[in-house]
Amino acid sequence: MSQPSTTVPPTGGAARRLRLRPTALLAAALAVTAVAAGCAPGTGGGAGGGGDGETTLTVWSWRPEDAAGYERIFAAFEERHPGVRVEFTGHKNTEYPAILQTGLTRTSGGPDVVQLKPYGPVQAFIQAGQLVPLDDEVDLSSWPEETVDAARGRRDDRVYGVPFAVQTLGVLYNREIFAEHGIEPPDTWDGMVDAAEELKAADVIPFATSGQEPWVLALLRETLGATRVGGDAFSRAVLDGETDFTDPDYAASLQAVADLEPYLPPDVTAVGYTDAQTLFTSGRAAMYPGGGYEIAPFRQAAPDLDIGYFDAPVVPGSPVDTPLTPGFADGSYGVNAASENREAAVELVAWMATEEFGRAFAEELEQIPAVPGVKPADPVLAAMLEGYAEHGTPYMMGVHFGYGDPLGRDAEGMALAALLLGDVTAEEAGKQVQKDIGSWFEPNG
Fold it and tell me: b/e for 392-419, b at 16 or more Cβ within 10 A?
């Protein structure tokens, strides 16, 4: 996504052709508002001028761990804009949606700039008129369409945020553990299973993951099983009504992941996200299927951890014969429509579309920036971005099926959890996913 749009399979047109039953997004918006009504207002502080006449822009995020990095990033903006101070406030990820809704409904004193979840979750805020359209304010015409689509309104096709990062998925691994056991990054599925067997025999957990979190399981299915459905070709077939999630290839993709259950943490469906991270950073697990967003916190937790990366090998029976690197745009920054500093806030998010911000973002936060042409210096992230440029595929449940209730990722994650528990077959899991997503999705036609 941070490469020219011709280097990865374009997804924007297919994404915008996705249809929702008219009540689906309205129900989602009302649900978010109802949740927020019972929550206390955030404590991030309000916008406005300082006592000495300077303008203070408040930026809200769901990543408090990025505070120090953003302080250094925004220092460059402040230097170029005398009299403007940027104040970053990070909220707990699980609490952020309700806190953000409360902040955006204030007529005054709310945040100026807000970090927005991509694809479906941002739609309720757009439809409520709580965000400033940025089409005439920020030039994203040179950006890949599939990146910009993460912040696009489904009804009006307008852009409401500047994407900040591209996430790619793959298998992260502990180089030291691999070397200790004489294991090389596998290039076949059987080779990966053999490596897992060897690690398990040595009392090392082959794959760390969280089966307690549906969204993590959905990423696990995408990371390891994207080849088994043929990547984005399957998504497009579902979008066009040519197939659905009862398709045997989709069931086989779920089963391929379920077959790895012996190599996952014991009682995986009871393992939380942070516990899974700790299994990897502590050296108890050798591999971690996930995204590039994990690398910075992994290194913070274990500075000596030597992390490598490989694409999951092709699942036997796949309609493709080369590995795939799934990816997606990981949110954007938008402007609160009720901001008392709207002009300055727009100027800040416009700066977030520049190479200067992209380079600082990559350096300070160790992530892949969404700004086209800016590559991360970190070699692992650079390799993941290269894989995405060469054989990328959109993260299906986020990019294409993240626009209703339940979100595609949650439907898939819950079905996969039931499959891992042995409560359903892969075919039954696929039928459940179809039922859940089919409650709000209608194919093109």
Answer: bbbbbbbbbbbbbebbbbbbbbbbbbbb
Strand, helix or coil for residue 118: coil
Please tell me whether residues 132 and 273 are part of one structural domain: no
Cα distances (Å, whole numbers) of residue 440 to 19, 123, 215, 295, 428: 9, 15, 19, 35, 19
Strands 332-335 and 113-116 come out as: antiparallel
Answer whether residue 307 is part of any domain.
yes
Predicted structure pTM score = 0.85
Rg of the chain (C-alpha set): 21
316 in the same domain as 255? yes
Range of the domain at 265: 167-327+406-442
Cis peptide before 22 (omega within 30 of 0): no
Provide the number of structural domains found in the chain.
2
Question: Per residue in 337-386, pLDDT tens?
Answer: 999 999 999 999 999 999 999 999 999 999 999 999 999 999 999 999 99
Query: Do 309 and 184 fall within a single domain?
Result: yes
Quick one: tokens of 231?
Answer: 């990547």
Rounded distance, CA 170 to CA 219, Å?
10
